[in-house]
Write a structure and sequence with these properties.
Layout lengths: L2 H12 L3 E4 L2 H8 L4 E5 L3 H11 L7 H5 L8 E3 L5 H12 L2 H18 L6 H20 L3
Helix pairs in contact: 2-7
């Protein structure tokens, strides 16, 4: 791991809570044992095409998908992504040690499902995405 990667990992590990965009950063935060929420917004055309023609996900965060679509990390997507909602969720999480510990525990379980904790987050993400695609293809193939 490069030196700048080590600093990023150290910062993530030292954080009490994080606000993240969807992507491999969520796996990196989980590996460091840091609870987080996810905010994500894309262009409305992209969202509409993805949502109605490609797939209809219950979640967009890899960790939530890997945990059988559980709500491990709160997600604020598209119109739900508002500063007041993010602030309220972060304040609630920071005020509740038990809730933070429960999220960390759930993150660890999801990481176990995704693969080895020593793997690079991008590798974990790629394996999980390929698994989800493979599972969906099997579900859609004629019997």
């Amino acid at each position: 791991m490069a030196e700048e990667d080590d600093r990023g990992a150290d910062i993530m590990a030292a954080a009490d809570y994080a606000l993240a965009c969807s992507g491999t950063v969520t796996s990196e935060l989980a590996v460091q044992g840091t609870p987080f929420l996810v905010g994500y917004r894309t262009g409305w055309i992209t969202w509409t095409l993805a949502r109605y023609f490609l797939f209809k996900p219950n979640h967009i965060t890899l960790l939530n998908i890997a945990a059988d679509d559980s709500d491990i990390a709160p997600e604020f997507i598209q119109t739900e992504l508002k500063a007041t909602a993010l602030a309220a969720e972060a304040q609630a999480m920071l005020a509740d040690d038990g809730r933070r510990e429960a999220q960390i525990s759930a993150q660890n379980k999801a990481l176990s499902r995704m693969g080895e904790r020593d793997e690079v987050a991008a590798e974990i993400a790629a394996k999980t995405i390929l698994g989800v695609i493979s599972d969906r293809r099997l579900e859609q193939s004629p019997a």
